[in-house]
Amino acid sequence: MAAKSQNGSVGELEAFAKELLQVLGALVEEREGVLEAVLPDAHRKTLGGDGFARLAFDPHTAEKAGIQYLSLGSPLADELIAMASRMGSVTRWYINGLRWSQRRAIHLDQWKARFANARIFYDEMEIPFACHYLLFNFQVSYLSDEKREEVHTVVVDSGSLQPAPKLQEGWRRMRLEPKRDFYAPDADCLPNAASLTAAYQRSIQLLQIQIAATVATYQRRASRHFEMESLRINTFYDDTKDELRRRLERTEEPERRRTLEHKIEASEVERERKLADAGAKHHLRVALSLLNAAIVSQPKVSGRVQVQNRYATAEASVVFDPLTGALELPSCHVCHNGATTIHLCANGHLACDACILTCSACQRVHCRECGVGACSVCGRALCAHNQNRCPSCGQVTCQDHRGRCH
Ligand SMILES: [Zn+2]
Ligand SMILES: [Zn+2]
Ligand SMILES: [Zn+2]
Ligand SMILES: [Zn+2]
Ligand SMILES: [Zn+2]
Fold it and tell me: How much of the chain exceeds pLDDT 70, in percent?
């Protein structure tokens, strides 16, 4: 790894290192910012020498305790990352020690979700189930004339596809263990291939949101470097051209003039090549690679509500999470984020504020997946039923603007 990341997130590296050491079979304990690990025999040589590793994640703690400082880009971090990619395995963890009132976990009056255009009916049936989170550790490489690397962790609920930032924040406070202490009927069934794939794709999407600001910063930096280098190249070739031109003006001899003209041409070709090279060198590429993954399971309680209005009905789950003690927000059918305000789409989908459109003709709410278009003349939203397609130009209009589109 070439360069250290300036703002690589320390918390993520720490969580990653801790998890990895546990996966490798080490006994890990954390005390005042220092990770202490008793290493299994197989990994003694590579990691600890005497079989005991003490790692700190910020230089001050490291100095104070006189121990190894683990930063991204350090040989030890590289070694951990290399080991993780060699293993390439999926590991399982359980969040143990969660307790809740077995009699009744779901109290709808405590639900932060509001249904904007529908009523809900709850049948009061509660079922405990195992929620499987997928944890992905990614290595993100920012490559241009400089190289930077970061480790990012993304956690996705494989059922709802919602991100779980709370889970990540609370990592060190929970009992994360390789054997489960709870019972749920489906606790040992892993999510099927389709939901694993969906969770993975969702994690990539969340990762891209996570790194967007950093990507923009590096992009600006790379284009600044490119501008500086182009300026240098252009100044040099402008000077060369001026000089050759001056010489050309001073000479009458045809043979000599041809040579100079040829030189001017060649120098321009070279300028273009140098600029193209610089462009390629300073072009930012972002590479994502999955280091490893883990399935983290915990018990939750689920109930069902019927969501209903004049046009449609839908079923939604209401989920109690004993880890937070709260009811989870329902997921938007379109963006998969948890939503405090939920709308019932005329086709029976539940969608958030950002993912709905109201048809200007029939006034019904539709989610963005239900083919809502717009009048090409006035721009108002139109559901599939109220779109008039023009027979001559093929554009969509509202009733008022029929035939006015071309
Ligand atoms: Zn949405
Ligand atoms: Zn409509
Ligand atoms: Zn819909
Ligand atoms: Zn119109
Ligand atoms: Zn038309």
Answer: 85
